Automatic annotation (TrEMBL):
Keyword Transmembrane: no
Gene name of the encoded protein: dapA
Pathway(s) served: Amino-acid biosynthesis; L-lysine biosynthesis via DAP pathway; (S)-tetrahydrodipicolinate from L-aspartate: step 3/4
Family per record: Belongs to the DapA family.
Compartment list: Cytoplasm
Top-rank EC class of the record's enzyme: lyase
Catalyzed reactions: L-aspartate 4-semialdehyde + pyruvate = (2S,4S)-4-hydroxy-2,3,4,5-tetrahydrodipicolinate + H2O + H(+)
Active site: residue positions: 135 (proton donor/acceptor), 164 (schiff-base intermediate with substrate)
Protein name, UniProt field: 4-hydroxy-tetrahydrodipicolinate synthase
Keywords from the UniProt entry: Amino-acid biosynthesis, Cytoplasm, Diaminopimelate biosynthesis, Lyase, Lysine biosynthesis, Schiff base
Amino acid sequence: MNKFYGTGVAIITPFQANGEIDFNALRNLIEYLIEGGVEYIVSLGTTGENVVLTAEEKKKVWAFTAEVNRGRIDLVAGIGGNNTADIIEQIKAFDTTGYAGILSASPSYNKPTQEGIYQHYKAIAAVAPLPIILYNVPGRTGSNVSAGTTVRLAHDFKNIIGIKEASGNFEQFNLIMRDKPEGFLLISGDDPVTLPMMALGAVGAITVIGNALPRQTSDMVRAALNNDYAAAQKAHFSLVEFTRLCFVEGSPAGVKTALSVLGVCGDTVRLPLVQVGSSTVDLFKKELAKITA
């Protein structure tokens, strides 16, 4: 399978009850994902609550993840933000040992123009020691990376090799697939629409729900890659309610609840996020009992 085809998991960062990083739980989760058959892990993407980790904590998580993985699957580091100069310095300082790529979310809050977004990624591409996957998530950033900007970046910079698209905009997906250079990857960043995106030509997903259900998620993605859409549809529909629950009270609080129910790790999040309510916990228990029966 080509690099970054299949299932990538935007891995959560487990915390102890006191808020400290739980490295033992992180080890367990990495092993759980590898055993679940995923193709790669994204460490400290937005699902990893990277905005509430210190620079030193990030270094420790990245190094620990590479140490535990031991080259068994590909690793991608999430390095993005709204201060271009700071992101450049973070990338220059990043220890690439064990990593195959960088996922970089577009700037949040600033609301740059499309030219500003282009120049932001141009500056990152000039210093990045690894291939870059763009990340468009307007629901969180407050601005959209247009199809035209994505395609322009894809044509202009050979080390920008794909985009994690979480806009939910199928017209945008159509334009990217029509106009992109050969080899540029469209990757689903939105679990509910991974399967229809793959029908358009997306090569897989960087998933949230895969933290808790790596086998089920990767089986669905692999079936779609093999053009077995009957099997992929069956798997997709079996995950619809679980996927809804993972986002009903915000991410990653939802999927951390699922991981807690499954006994993989705890469900602690750092403020300003909070744990989901007891009624949602009960719904997770019922749905996971059905899925894992």
